[in-house]
Design goal:
single chain; about 325 residues; alpha/beta; 12 helices; binds 1,5-di-O-phosphono-alpha-D-ribofuranose
């Protein structure tokens, strides 16, 4: 029953953060594969596809989710027996989980090298990779200070300040609308990503685009920390990233909303920061300017390329 439970936890955001969601999905698919008692590879595939669909339907924006599902389900390819299919899925899931954890550690190292001794950093929302860079810089003995936003309506900023506090990092907690007020005290903005498009735009927690605007106006650099599986292959085909809009009662309690019949609460969970506002994207393969997002998709998310071959024929990726 791990699949429905995991799906529910992702929906309710008990499991949240693009990387954690991806790993949870890999674990759920792996454990589901282990528990399946079916006789034929076809029946196994059907059961796995059903589970994958359930997980894919939970949240629409973080592209790490379909990327993780795709990487794990590739374990079914070329399997002739049920046992082969099962071990293929389990192996792919384990590989994804290990490489994801490794990517988080690698990004912390690369990202920390862009943080200077004495820097004041602003971060928005709660990104394990963005925080990894900050904590690693602190671990290396760099004297840093952080501004962390509250992150309405789900208050992920509370998780961020607890983590920073536990690491012993001097932190200022501010409301989201105070970013413009404090941006002149900041040397570097570091955020995570739910999706990176082929043109280097970054989809991240609602408010990130406003933070980026303020940073650009104040000439403060903005660095994005994102594993390669947060890059969205299908954007090469012109597909847009769907921005999740969550329930209004995350913003305004139902009883208050009921008394205001002319008021509609809008609650998009993410926004899009164009590449012009981003100085660097740090991945586990190295740091790139956002304009190089295509190269990451081409070199590390090969499955998207296969689909170009189907759509446009070979040659598009320079072969
Ligand atoms: P990591 C989160 O989304 C935030 O937008 C965060 O910046 C992003 O995922 C990446 O998180 P949500 O799940 O993978 O809180 O870096 O809606 O932890």
């Amino acid at each position: 029953m791990i699949v429905p439970e995991t799906a529910e936890k992702i929906k309710s955001m008990e499991i949240r953060g693009a990387g954690r969601i991806a790993r949870a999905v890999a674990v759920a698919l792996r454990d589901h594969a282990r528990s399946l008692q079916v006789q034929t590879p076809d029946a196994f595939r059907q059961e796995m596809e059903h589970a994958a669909k359930l997980l894919l339907a939970t949240r629409p924006t973080a592209v790490s989710l379909p990327n993780a599902v795709h990487m794990v389900m590739a374990g079914l390819n070329h399997a002739k027996t049920t046992d082969e299919a099962k071990s293929g899925v389990i192996r792919r899931a384990d590989e994804f989980i290990t490489s994801s954890q490794h990517a988080v550690e690698q990004i912390a190292q690369f990202g920390a090298s862009h943080i200077r001794d004495g820097d004041t950093i602003l971060t928005h929302c709660n990104s394990e990779v963005a925080l990894g860079c900050i904590i690693e810089a602190h671990r290396q003995g760099k004297k840093i200070e952080v501004f962390a936003t509250e992150v309405r309506p789900r208050n992920q900023g509370l998780i961020t300040i607890r983590t920073l506090n536990d690491a012993g990092i001097k932190t200022n907690f501010i409301v989201d609308s105070a970013v413009r007020t404090f941006i002149n005290d900041v040397d570097l903005v570091i955020v995570g990503a739910d999706a990176v498009t082929v043109n280097g735009a970054v989809v991240n927690k609602i408010g990130t685009a406003q933070v980026a605007h303020s940073a650009r106006e104040a000439r403060v650099n903005l660095m994005v920390a994102a594993e390669t599986y947060k890059f969205a292959p299908r954007t090469i085909l012109g597909e847009f990233i769907r921005i999740e809009e969550r329930a209004g009662n995350e913003v305004l309690a139902d009883d208050i909303a009921r008394a205001l019949p002319y008021v509609t609460v809008r609650n998009p969970a993410f926004d899009v920061t164009p590449s012009e506002y981003i100085d660097l994207i740090v991945t586990e393969k190295g740091a790139i300017p956002p304009q190089m997002a295509y190269v990451i998709i081409r070199d590390y998310l090969g499955w998207g390329i296969d689909e170009f071959h189907l759509a446009f024929g070979p040659g598009l990726n320079g072969e």
